[in-house]
Amino acid sequence: MKTALKNLFLTNPSKSFNSYIQKCVSLLKIFSDKGLVAGGTVFHCHLLKNGVLSERCIAIKLLIMYLEFRKLSEANQIIKDFNGFDLVVQNCLIKASIQWGNLSEARKMFDEMPERNDITWTLLISGLMKYGRLEESMWHFERNPFKSVVSWTAAITGFVKNGSSFHGLKLFVRLLESGVKPNQFTFSSIVSACIEMGDFDLGMSVLGLIIKTGFENNVSVSNSLITLCLRMHEFDQARRVFDRMETRDVVSWTAILDMYVERGELGEARRIFDEMPQRNEVSWSAIIARYSQYGDHIEALKLFRNMVREGFKPTISCFSSILCALASLESLQAGKNLHAHVMKMGIEGDLFIACSLVDLYCKCGETKDGRLVFDLIENKNVVLWNSMIGGYSTNGQMDEAKYLFNNMPARNNISWGAFIGGYVEYKQFDMVFEVFNEMLLSGETPTKPTFSSVLCACASLTSLEKGRDIHGKILKLGFQYDVYLGTALTDMYAKCGDIESSKQVFDRMSERNEFSWTVMIQGLAESGFAKESLALFEEMKRNSSVAPNELMLLSVLFACSHCGFVDKGLEFFGAMELEYGIRPKGRHYTCVVDMLSRSGLLSEAEELINSMPFQPEANALAALISGCKTYRNEEIAERTARKLVELAEKNSAGFILLSNIYASAGRWIDVSNMRKLMREKGLKKSVGFSWIEVRSHLHSFYSEDGTHLKSAEIHDILELLRLEMTDPKHIPTF
DNA sequence: ATAGGGTTAG
């Protein structure tokens, strides 16, 4: 930009007029492409001063610039000065109307034009396609007297971008039959169609045609071919295409960068990124998006800062990646700052941005602000609806989620999944299965994450029957087990007590992550297979790159405790911080206290409690008291009980345990005192409930009675049964 | 005027 300006001022308009005009034209294009409103306006004055506004090409470029800036009055002024509407000016206006989404205006202008050229027709055809009006577009295409490659390509591209690749291909065949020669744009589009249809073989036969017509060395065609190979996971082939290219542009580099990212080789990708001969905002977006997708949000933010520092203007996709990173980090303040920035740029109406913003606010627990963003968007798409429903779901606002779900104009399987996920997270399992069944009845196919959340519900209910049923459905759909689904199945079987099936699923998984190992180790430990659990933990340390985590160590300690491996347990406990860098939490202490108390090491257990850097869990004290009971140690029991009373002042868990201990000792007066005290303090025991399944419908019963619809009837029947059992002479009267 | 790389929801 700077050099272009300097260059211009060195040119004398009176001496080399043509070169001067050409430089002005290219500068105007820069102003309008980069959206430099102020610079463009000043440059307008400069042109006025030099008296070159009457030059046709200058006036047109100026008009295009003002249309780009949406400065309508300035644009109209230029049209007036230039003496009205010729074909080129009208084409510019049609293009602007389409860009601003005013299709009816574009149609009106088109219909009223006295003459039209190929560009006019193509503008309308591609414009209609852009807004999904396929039939209307084709109607014009068929009537277009100038069927050039460009209009053919516009129509083909329109089909591909609207997900009708097959129609695009049919049109391509017609193009070949008509004798018009396809160009590099056409081929790029056709390769995209193959990608969209997932048809690698078809892509390869198109490649034959590309070579035959001599386009194989074209940069953009090669770039699409790289993407074709990437999508089909033919990474070596992709690299071969890249290596064969004579010239590569920033797109080629970005595509190959993405290949390494896709293979999970982020280090190699970063190396390529750092060594790329040229970068643009898309290459930046690509690497930033991937860092965020791989969970390194901090690095993504650092890269974003570097990008801005190097003077690149972040694109919409880049903003949405960063907003997504901020959502994952739950940094509300930074998110709000970026929101302000987005508003300043005037892109808050973009659907990608809006979705990310809704997600950001909801992940930070601010569903109201999320809703504000949601309500401001006029043309909502499914994704936006789903974001909002998902936001309410994760925040437990199921009534709001339900209302939106019932009133959305169009649902897809992700909407169902988002809605069901909320019920899973907030443990309303009867609703989970009700909605899930409704989903199946509606003919929607659940996605993998939906299956895994429903499996999680089965695990929580320990409903093996339902779990197996879901497993069957997954098999029937022919889903490949991915890590998430495999882990969910492993967990479900383990929690439902079918440890054999659990092990089977785990053994068959081709890829295992931290969660997979955790659920299996935990499953074995909690099902009483302590030795196997410990062995698996050792195997993981030996054979995988997964590092031990808090939950695994809890399972390992649990296993040691239940196997009576006191020494081994203490060894693991000691190694937690030193070897694995995990600071023991309350749960770990409780587990070790329990282990010591079970084996009669009461004073060691008491010592451990006293040495804790923070408040012990009430359960730890209860475990010790229970040990004292087994090994008859009144002294420690008394001291510990006093601590429990102290603790009970602060939380309800302590109260409940204490009253349970009193109850098991038969001290009913103390029990009733505790209950009274709890009521006075407003402490509430979390509600207990149980459930049964009748004809695949789930009935829940809460400890506060009367929540079941047929509660009264059930009690009547119970009374009948009781009578029958206690009074042999009683004859039931049905 | 037409094309290729990056972006949102569970």
From TrEMBL:
Keywords: Repeat. Signal peptide: none annotated. GO terms for biological process: RNA modification. PPR repeats lie at residues 148-182, 183-217, 249-279, 280-314, 381-415, 513-547. It holds the Pfam family PPR. One of its GO terms (molecular function) is RNA binding. PANTHER family: (WILD MALAYSIAN BANANA) HYPOTHETICAL PROTEIN, PENTATRICOPEPTIDE REPEAT-CONTAINING PROTEIN. This is Pentatricopeptide repeat-containing protein At2g13600-like. InterPro entries: E_motif, PPR_At4g14850-like_plant, PPR_rpt, TPR-like_helical_dom_sf. The keyword Oxidoreductase does not apply.
